[in-house]
């Protein structure tokens, strides 16, 4: 299958070129949906089961390594770098990949963006209070993220960026200064967390000067338990989590729906 | 919400050059001219440049007011936003032409955005959530040491936040996440075989012959006692050393390896590790991992400890594996109530000992 490459004029700005590149990859991704059943049949005949096994293992390894930085994985990348000529049977491969993650690693491969086919890995096992989540020392960024996600959630799901910065300042984390643990805080929050899809950082329309608002990202929706978060908030305030009725309702609803999936 | 002024009024006297009606004029977006040149079907009253300028200026004032005082407008305690809208309504009654109408539209867009935001701030039921209080509680959780401030100021930057503050929060926050552990390589060897069964705990004599046995019981008893006593004495001596260090600086943790390793003797090092493990087992000192992942010894502030097992496995002649279960300080018990158990496996052999004393 020949790849269609679009010539990109050098004069185009970087941002424009990027969207051009993603268009290319979207084309490749589109190839996934144009597979006919005869193509599938032929592919199964062409490749031995050993070869397919190997392919499955390669995809698993690819995803594991991509997951290290916690940046969500695009189906197009999996296709381009790993599956390649096995594209016709990608569904079968991906099914087996999911099963491997589930049965061997206790992980779930979750599609957080069904439109753009973007995946993340999350833990199938829920952490149990009283047992350590991991033997390694905690990553301080987890604490930082928790603070931001909590404020957003408790305040109804969207907040202006100033609320985040002001809260962090009270915790001695100033986005204007270099922080001992986090370094360039603004970058961590508005760039790293956003690329990992823990947060969304969106322009508020009609603001002059421009202001942004924060929401939960697609990864956070799948990876973070609102109920557990609310419980911890309750512990900090020494308050019954149910006293925040709206938040409790939302957290419980999300919990039951995610258990079903 | 808005009462549109009487836009449908018939025009004033036209001068006959193509009677442009009101709606046509309203669509004329290109009307930049103050003096209203061109076919002037517009009445003088509607076209008064001074008046129009005044209207536009008032609109701009309102727009500025909304933009500069955004926070104030959002405050649920006042009706400033509604007041602005009422002002705009009054102004609009006098708007006749597109240029002013455009300003009105601009103001409305701003106001509705604010209105939407204001509405979203209302939570019909349930407790409020105050981010400032949240921050205060977090600081307490992270171990903020609030100093006595004699000036009586309520500075929120008072107090000493320990280095482990964010670590502490991270460890607790982790429970809210279902994060997949990151893939990384296990560096080092991996013994596939299970360890051979425990060969010996202490140096024991071989079973004595029958002859010697008669005398043995008393002698052996003495040996055992003196062995145990020797061990106890050593342990106490080490405890004394540590207590001296802690007295000098109770907060400073001591590097475990620095403490146990004897640069001159491997066997002494092993004995030190052995004796240290008693102190840990008995809850007299605590051991944990510092931020580099290296074990260190610290002072126990309260007596609360939880477990009891020390076991030594000699796997090979030159390799000693130690397994100790370290107690947790009372203050560090997780909020859920259960104690956290930490296991620390330390190994040392001649080779690594030689490397470590370099």
In short:
The complex is a heterodimer of chains A (261) and B (358). Chain A is an alpha+beta fold.
Largest interface: A-B, 66 and 54 residues
N-end to C-end Cα span of chain B: 83 Å
Q: Which consecutive residue ranges of chain A, at least 5 long each, have pLDDT under 50? A: 1-8, 10-25
- String of helices and strands of chain B: HHHHHHHHHEHHEEEEEH
Fraction in helix of chain A: 55-70%
What characterizes the major β-sheet of chain B? 3 strands, antiparallel
Q: Going across the major beta sheet of chain A, what is the strand order?
A: 1-3-2
Can you describe what's shown?
The complex is a heterodimer of chains A (261) and B (358). Chain A has 261 residues and is α+β, with helices and mostly antiparallel strands. Chain A contains eleven helices and eight strands. Chain A has helices spanning 14-33, 37-46, 49-67, 75-83, 90-105, 140-154, 161-170, 185-195, 218-223, 226-237, 245-260, and strands at 73-74, 107-113, 118-123, 158-160, 178-179, 183-184, 199-203, 212-216. Chain A has a three-stranded antiparallel β-sheet with strand order 1-3-2. In chain A, strands 4-8-7 form a three-stranded antiparallel β-sheet. Chain A has a two-stranded antiparallel sheet with strand order 5-6. In chain A, helix 1 (14-33) packs across helix 4 (75-83), helix 3 crosses helix 5 and helix 6 crosses helix 10. Chain A is elongated. By secondary structure, chain B is mainly alpha-helical. Chain B is built from twelve helices and six strands. Chain B has helices at residues 22-27, 44-47, 49-68, 70-74, 80-92, 98-121, 131-141, 165-173, 210-248, 256-260, 266-281, 350-356, and strands at 254-255, 285-289, 295-299, 310-314, 319-326, 342-349. In chain B, the strands form two sheets. In chain B, strands 1-3-2 form a three-stranded antiparallel β-sheet. In chain B, strands 4-5-6 form a three-stranded antiparallel β-sheet. The longest helix of chain B has 39 residues, at 210-248. Chain B is rod-shaped and about 120 Å long. At the A-B interface, helix 3, strand 3, helix 6, helix 7 and helix 10 of A face helix 6, helix 7 and helix 8 of B.
């Amino acid at each position: 299958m020949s790849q269609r490459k679009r010539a990109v004029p050098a004069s185009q700005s970087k941002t424009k070129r990027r969207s051009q590149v993603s268009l290319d990859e979207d084309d490749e991704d589109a190839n996934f949906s144009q597979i006919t059943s005869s193509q599938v049949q032929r592919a199964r005949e062409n490749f031995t089961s050993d070869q397919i096994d190997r392919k499955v293992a390669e995809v698993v390894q690819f995803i594991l390594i991509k997951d290290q930085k916690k940046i969500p994985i695009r189906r197009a990348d999996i296709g381009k770098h790993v599956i390649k000529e096995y594209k016709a049977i990608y569904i079968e491969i991906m099914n087996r990949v999911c099963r491997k993650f589930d049965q061997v690693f206790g992980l779930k491969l979750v599609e957080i963006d069904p439109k753009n086919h973007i995946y993340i890995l999350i833990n199938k096992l829920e952490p149990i209070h009283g047992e350590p989540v991991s033997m390694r020392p905690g990553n301080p960024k987890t604490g930082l993220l928790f603070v931001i996600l909590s404020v957003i959630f408790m305040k109804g799901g969207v907040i202006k960026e100033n609320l985040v910065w002001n809260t962090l300042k009270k915790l001695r984390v100033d986005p204007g200064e270099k922080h001992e643990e986090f370094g360039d805080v603004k970058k961590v929050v508005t760039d790293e967390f956003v690329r990992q899809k823990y947060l969304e950082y969106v322009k508020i329309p009609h603001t002059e000067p421009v202001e942004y608002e924060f929401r939960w990202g697609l990864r956070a929706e799948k990876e973070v338990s609102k109920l557990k978060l609310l419980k911890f908030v309750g512990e900090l305030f020494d308050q019954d989590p149910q006293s925040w009725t709206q938040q409790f309702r939302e957290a419980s609803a999300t919990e039951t729906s995610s258990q079903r999936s | 919400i808005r009462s549109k002024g009487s836009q449908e009024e018939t025009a004033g006297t036209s001068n006959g050059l193509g009677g442009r009606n009101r709606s046509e004029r309203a669509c004329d977006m290109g009307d930049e001219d103050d003096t209203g040149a061109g076919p002037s079907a517009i009445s003088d009253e509607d076209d008064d440049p001074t008046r129009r300028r005044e209207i536009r200026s008032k609109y701009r004032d309102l727009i500025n007011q909304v933009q500069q005082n955004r926070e104030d407008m959002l405050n649920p305690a006042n009706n400033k936003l509604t007041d602005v809208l009422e002002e705009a309504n009054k102004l609009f009654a006098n708007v006749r032409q597109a240029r002013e109408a455009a300003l009105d539209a601009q103001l409305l867009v701003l106001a509705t955005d604010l209105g939407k935001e204001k509405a979203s701030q209302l939570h019909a039921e349930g407790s409020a959530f105050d981010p400032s209080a949240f921050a205060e509680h977090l600081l307490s959780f992270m171990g903020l040491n609030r100093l006595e401030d004699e000036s009586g100021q309520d500075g929120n930057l008072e107090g000493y936040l320990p280095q482990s503050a964010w670590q502490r929060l991270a460890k607790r926050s982790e429970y809210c996440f279902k994060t997949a552990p990151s893939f990384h390589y296990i560096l080092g060897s991996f013994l596939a075989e299970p360890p051979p069964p425990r060969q010996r705990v202490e140096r024991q004599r071989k079973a004595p012959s029958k002859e010697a046995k008669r005398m043995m019981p008393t002698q052996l008893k003495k040996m055992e006692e003196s062995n145990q006593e020797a061990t106890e004495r050593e342990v106490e001596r080490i405890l004394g050393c540590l207590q001296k260090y802690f007295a000098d600086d109770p907060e400073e943790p001591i590097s475990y390896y620095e403490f146990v390793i004897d640069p001159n003797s491997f066997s002494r090092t092993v004995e030190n590790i052995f004796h240290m493990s008693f102190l840990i087992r008995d809850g007299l000192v605590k051991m944990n991992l510092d931020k580099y992942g290296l074990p260190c010894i610290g002072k126990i502030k309260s007596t609360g400890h939880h477990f009891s097992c020390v076991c030594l496995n000699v796997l090979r002649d030159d390799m000693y594996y130690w397994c100790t279960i370290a107690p947790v300080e009372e203050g560090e018990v997780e909020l859920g109530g259960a104690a956290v158990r930490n296991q620390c496996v330390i190994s040392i052999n001649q080779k690594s000992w030689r490397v470590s004393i370099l």
